[in-house]
Design a protein that fits this description.
- The chain is of the alpha/beta class and 294 residues long.
- The protein is built from eight helices and nine strands.
- The protein is globular.
- It binds glutamic acid (GLU).
Length: 294
């Protein structure tokens, strides 16, 4: 497939990132995606940022964040900024960056693009059934989407979910650097998504956009399981008045039965491979072959 790579080989503006979530041990699928992110940052003579996406206090563990760094070093990846080496955009742990997320949340709420939501899952399911909507998060009926005049926004409170008011029928299109042109329809593929969770934690969709903007990321390399998130995130970039970066979604690594590898399914971790004497150079060779075939 002929692709139009925006970054020329001698450009020095490329800024990529590795953004693991330390909620489990990383597996070979993560290794491949992160290797590709690293490789592209080198291919385009740019820099790479390591960001520890440890926002969820119940699922994320400090020892897993440390292991993720060790796994990446074992793979012989290097980065220019990160939690272990610092850099101009520190801190590189999301759990220490709440002030950035709060100010973007406030900005979005003040422009009327968010609404507080206290609907229960039961109410939501009943609504979906009644309206034949079978997406996880529908576009809410207008009476469930209070307008800004009817609520005060100070700081996000625990117990209230903040959702993004998605424009119904809006087609979100982007040219993926790996997969070509992608198109998603708001209200069909996704609905009013959460930007701030009920437990007071910023949602992934908001945090990742705020960080990628603040850290000057020019290309996001990640697994194709996040394509729908990309469509949602493009709406957030627009709402925050910023151009989105380029995206490169990597095909997922699957097991012999065609299932994608998963942290929760006990896929063999990089750490286990390391302990059993695997050769990182052989992995790199295999990843190079895969990357060249994309
Ligand atoms: N932290 C996310 C994950 O591990 C990836 C985020 C991203 O690449 O945008 O699934």
């Amino acid at each position: 497939m002929a692709r139009d790579f925006r970054f020329s080989a001698d450009a020095d503006v490329y800024r990529g990132r590795l953004a693991p979530t330390p909620s489990g041990l990383l597996h070979a699928g993560h290794a491949r995606t992160f290797w590709i992110a690293w490789h592209r940052s080198r291919q385009f003579k740019g820099s790479l940022i390591f960001r520890n996406e440890d926002l969820d206090p119940l699922r994320c563990k400090a020892n897993l964040a440390k292991t993720a760094l060790e796994d990446m070093r074992w793979l012989d990846l290097s980065w220019e900024e990160g939690p272990d080496i610092g850099g101009p955009h520190a801190p590189y742990d999301q759990s220490a960056r709440t002030k950035f997320y709060q100010s973007s949340l406030k900005r979005l709420a003040e422009t009327g693009l968010l609404f507080p939501c206290a609907r229960s899952r039961k109410e939501l399911n009943a609504y979906r059934e009644l309206n034949g909507q079978n997406i996880g998060e529908p576009i809410y009926p207008e009476e469930w989407r209070p307008r800004r005049q009817s609520f005060q926004f100070e700081t996000p409170e625990v117990g209230v979910v903040w959702r993004f008011r998605v424009p119904s029928g809006r087609v979100v299109t982007f040219v993926d650097q790996c997969l070509g042109e992608m198109s998603f329809v708001a209200g069909e593929d996704f609905g009013d998504f959460v930007v701030w969770r009920r437990d007071g934690v910023p949602a992934y969709e908001l945090a990742v956009v705020v960080d990628d903007i603040e850290m000057g990321i020019t290309e996001v390399v990640r697994g194709e399981d996040l394509l729908l998130s990309t469509a949602r995130q493009i709406l957030l970039y627009e709402a925050l008045g910023c151009y989105p970066p380029e995206f490169f979604h990597c095909p997922l690594l699957r097991d012999g039965d065609g299932n994608k590898l998963s942290k929760s399914l006990d896929s063999i971790s990089i750490t286990d491979h390391r302990a059993s004497g695997a050769d990182p150079a052989a992995w790199a060779k295999d990843f190079t072959r895969v990357y060249n075939s994309l």
